[in-house]
């Protein structure tokens, strides 16, 4: 069945194209912006709080993310092989 092989090719290509975007999306930092104050500054006031930064990923979290990516890629490849094998088997059965 041609549509199954096309589906696998499209799914794998989408996954491969999205893979480089994952680290870039994970490393974005969200800054909370506060509107500028129009009131005059008092000498007794403290400085406004800076941007809130998320804590950096630890080595354990990074290795866990890598493991999940590897398992995801492996599962997509295995599903692709199964779909492709079934379509080949179906074609051989029709030919007989």
From TrEMBL:
Source organism, top-level taxon: Bacteria
Annotated region described as Disordered, given as residue ranges: 32-64
Chain intervals with Low complexity compositional bias: 32-51
First and last residue of the signal peptide: 1-26
Keyword Transmembrane helix (UniProt): yes
TM segment ranges: 69-88
Keywords in alphabetical order: Membrane, Signal, Transmembrane, Transmembrane helix
Protein name per its UniProtKB record: LPXTG cell wall anchor domain-containing protein
